[in-house]
Design a protein that fits this description.
- There is one protein chain.
- Helix 1 packs antiparallel against helix 4 and helix 8 crosses helix 14.
- Helix content is 72%, strand content 0%.
- By secondary structure, it is mainly α.
- The chain has one domain.
Length: 339
Amino acid sequence: MRQIDPDRAVSRSASSPAPLTAAVVILAALAYPGPLITWWDALGLDVPAISAVLTAYYLAQVMILGIFVAGWCLPGKPIMVKAGIVAASAIITTLALTAPSTITNCAYYLATAVMCGFVAIQQVGRVPLWPRGRDLPLTLVPLPLILTSTGASVALATWMGIQRTPGQTTQSAAEGLVGTIARIDTYPELLIRSLWTGVGEEVAAVLLVIALARRRVPVVLVYLIPAIVRASYHASYSWSAVALVILGVGMVYLWRRWERMLPLIAAHALWDALARHYPWTLMVLVGVGLLIIVGFCARPGVRWVWLRAKSRMTTRFGRPSAERSNLDAPASSSGQVTS
């Protein structure tokens, strides 16, 4: 594996938040409100005030990120710019709560994704997010990994005899307080929400990996901690979420190997967008991704076999005829005629 200098991997200004701070804020805003509601409901407690606070927290992600971006990520900007960002966040959240529709819901999730993308650019620069030719195969490579972890999660849920219903508790709790913001009624909403999930989860995971590497944490923990965090905020899967550690470890490897954030985001969003409505298309893409993985893993073996065969042919038959004829030709000096 190519060793990555953690100091070089983060091209941020001295005034911007540390990667760990940015990762914690994104996780706190996007990932953990849902599990908190799930864990609270799992306790069987009925305290309407606390349930309402947890649900409001789930819906305050745009405001949380807006305040973070304005207050910590833009230290040199005029106060009016910061106030405008916070005001826009408040307006988007209010419209999504009071007048839920496809437009307001898409604006709600899109605003969250844009702010997470801004934080990512500030932390790692534009290069890991700027499209490159190799991003297409790298986008397909994580799909077999997602399928493996999802299949392992389903198998674990079946073996443990537990019900695996992702997102239902969170969505029902949110709908009970504010209507339909957490319910997906149209495919455009699904696409935007898939983008929101991909950007939020993968940006937070990458920033967490960078933060751990900068602190010289052992490599094993660099892989395990983001994987465990990823499994923890999928609490709606119950204990079967443990299987998502497979996905977490794989995503960490892909980032450390290629330092490309865009393919990770695209693969995550692509899976969420196609899994429900276009499963056969998704399975075709999974197959292509598997072929890419097999080809990548087999390349060193194929190279070794080719070099081994070439060495044996050279040993047995000598040099190729063209090379041998050049070496065996008599050396003639300039102006000397040979007969």
